[in-house]
Design brief:
- By secondary structure, the chain is mainly α.
- Helices cover 68% and strands 0% of the residues.
Length: 187
């Protein structure tokens, strides 16, 4: 029965903690990472993809964390990638929180959009077009001059969600490391 689960775990909170740690075991860690910046990007991509597979994760990550063995392996690998960065311990933990938080949030939004598409039959392109139409309408109202100015600028080259994700994560990492766009090799 449903309640027999609590013969094995003391509470729902404990079960959720175990579930989060179990999902954390899905991360894969390569041995040597020659480019630590790209190693951090790889972890972020994995976090996003894990969240796509487990859309319940962002909601449950809003609880105070209890760090289990699999999550500790993640923290250890992440901090190893930041060794030699010159950041102090607090800054390293902040970078970990920013990168992991963004990856989980982004993956959660992508999972929610995919669920909506499956439920409604709307395509990804139709979803995106509706969002753009909403922004254009708001800008045309005159109430959002900064949005109107941004939309009046030259168009950005088309990017898919994965490209946008990578650029955002690299900007977070590079900003935390104090790299200029020229040093980081992104434009």
């Amino acid at each position: 029965g449903t309640m027999s689960l609590y013969n094995y775990v003391p509470s729902k909170e404990h079960l959720v903690q175990l579930m989060i740690d179990h999902v954390s075991a899905e991360y894969r860690y390569p041995g040597q990472v020659p480019d630590h910046r790209l190693g951090l990007l790889d972890l972020a991509r994995q976090g996003r993809d894990i969240t796509r597979r487990h859309p319940w994760l962002p909601r449950e990550m809003q609880r105070p964390p209890v760090i289990g063995p699999a999550a500790l392996r993640y923290v250890e690998h992440f901090l190893g990638l930041l060794s030699g960065s010159g950041l102090d311990t607090g800054a390293k933990m902040e970078v970990l929180g920013m990168v992991n938080g963004f990856a989980i949030s982004y993956g959660g939004v992508q999972a929610a959009l995919a669920e909506e598409r499956a439920r409604t039959g709307v395509t990804e392109q139709e979803q995106a077009a509706a969002q753009v139409a909403g922004l254009i309408s708001a800008a045309a109202s005159g109430g959002y001059p900064n949005l109107a100015a941004a939309l009046a600028g030259p168009p950005s080259p088309p990017r898919d969600a994965d490209e946008i994700f990578d650029r955002c994560i690299l900007r977070l990492i590079d900003g935390a490391l104090g790299l200029t766009p020229q040093e980081a090799h992104w434009g």
